[in-house]
Amino acid sequence: MARTIVCDGNEAAAWGVVLSRPDMVAVYPITPQSSLAEYISQFVADGIIQADLMDVEGEHSVLSVLQGACLAGARTFTASSGQGLAFMFEPYFRTPPLRLPIVMCIVTRDGITPQCVWGGQQDAMTVREAGWVHMYCETNQEILDTVIMAYKIAENREVMLPVNVNYDGNYLSYGVERVEIPDQEKVDAFLGEKNTNWHAALDPDRPMGVDPLTGGAGGLGPALFVRYRKGLCKGMQNALGVIAEVHKEWEKISGRSYAPLIEEYRLEDADYVIMTIGSMTGAGKDAVDAAREGGERVGLVKIKTFRPFPLQALCEALREVKAVGIVDRSVSFGWNAGPMYQEVISALYFLNKHIPAVSFIGGLAGADITVDHFSRVIEITSRAVQGEVPSGPIWVNEED
Amino acid sequence: MRHQARKPFDQSTIPNDLCPIATEYSVLRTGDWRAERPVVDRSKCVKCATCWLYCPTQCIVEKPTWFEADLEICKGCGVCAQECPHHAIIMVEELEG
Hints:
The complex is a heterodimer of chains A (400) and B (97).
Chain A (H helix, E strand, L loop, with lengths): L2 E6 H12 L3 E4 L6 H12 L6 E4 L3 H13 L4 E5 L1 H6 L1 H6 L8 E6 L13 H5 L6 E4 L3 H15 L8 E6 L7 E6 L2 H8 L17 E2 L10 H34 L7 E4 L6 E6 L3 H13 L4 E6 L1 E3 L3 H8 L4 E6 L10 H12 L6 E5 L9 H15 L8 E2 L5
Parallel strand pairs in A: 2-3, 2-4, 4-5, 5-7, 6-7, 11-12, 11-14, 14-15, 15-16
Antiparallel strand pairs in A: 1-8, 6-13, 10-12
Chain B lengths: L20 E2 L13 E5 L9 H5 L5 E3 L4 E3 L9 H5 L5 E5 L4
Antiparallel strand pairs in B: 2-5, 3-4
C-alpha cells in the first residue's frame, strides 16, 4: 500500500530516488540541496536504498564519476544548487552529447554576487542551453513523481538525455507538505529495465573509444560534429512527445495528473494571461481567481518543461490572447528582462502575432511572490491590453 | 603476450548521429600534426611492447620481429622513444611535408 508522509521537498526528492533504485549516487552538499544529500546518505546507511554512495571532493568530480558509472551501466542520481552547479559546468556540458541518462535535481538558488544562499532560479536558467531536459516542479508531491518520471524520460531510446528536476530552493526544499509515497512494485513496473549504456559503454566485451577527438578543418571531423549536434537536437524534440506520454502513463499508475509541458489555468475566454514557473504558481492562480471574481478575463499559463521548449503547446495556448505578462525568478542581464520572457516573445513570432508582453522579475534571493504581487502583475498586464506597455522589466519585490 | 588488438565492436546497430564513439581511428588523421617521427632500430627491438602500452594514440603496430608506429596516426609525441627500455627508438625530424 502506498503510504502518506509529511515532508519537505528535499525528502520528497530523496524518496523519489529510493523508488527509482539507482545503482550509484554521488553528491556534494550545498545549500539549499544539503538536506537532500543527508536524506540519501541516511537511506543508504539504513539499507533503504541499495546504491553505492560516493563521497567526492567537489561537484566537478560528482558528475564525472557519474558519467563513468553510467557508461559502465549504472542508473545514477545527483543533485546540486547555485555555486555547486557552476563548479560542475564542465562535465555538465559533456553529459548531453554523450547521451547519458543521468538524473539530477537542481534545488534552485540565486546566483552570487551579492553573497546569497536563498532561492531563485538563476542557476538553472543560466545552464538552460547545455542540452539537459529541464522540468520545474510546483509541489513536493510533484518533485517525488517527477524524479521517477525523469528516469523513464531520460532512458527512453528516442531521447537518451540527462534530465534536471528543478524545484525552488527554500519554498519547496524546506517547505513541508503531504506527500504520498507510491508502492515500490508499481514504480518497478513503470520504470522497467534500466537503459543506460547500450550506445556508449566502458565495457571490455564491447571495446570502443568514447568521446574521441572530433572536428578540425578537414577530413570527416567537422561533418561528424554537425551530425552529433543535429542528433542531440532531435533527441530534445523527441523528448516533447515522450514527456507527455510518460506523464500519462504515470497518471494511470499513481492517479496523479500533471501538465507535462505547460499547464493552462482558466484560459477559456481569457483576454490576457500571466505566465509562471515553479512554486510561485499557486499564488498566481489565487490572484487569477480573485481577478476573475472582479470580472477580469485573465488566465494563467505555467511552464513545467522549459527544455525542450514547448513551442507548439505554448503557441496553441496563446493563440487568442491580447497581452501576456511573464513572471521570471531570474534575470537575463543581456536583455534587461527575464529569460522566460525572451523565449515567450520568440514563440509569439511563430504565431505571427505582435501582442504586448511585459517582463516581471520577482522572487530573487529568497523573496516571496505573494498574491498581492500577482494582483499587481495582473493589473499591469491588463493595462498592456490597451497598449500601455512598460519600457523595461517590472521588479516585483522592488518596493517590499 | 596477448594479441594486440581485439576484434572491434560492431557499432552498426547504434544510430550514427547519437554520440561520439569510435572503434577505429577514422575521424582524425593525427599524423598530420607530427614534427618528429619515431624510427625503430630493429636490431635493438626485443618486442617487449612497452611502446605499444604507452602510446597515447594507440598507433603502435605489431610486425614480425619488431613494433612500429602507424604514421597516419602517430602525432610524434616521443613518449615511445622516452619509455623504450632498450633505447631502440629515436625521434627524427620530419624534413619533408
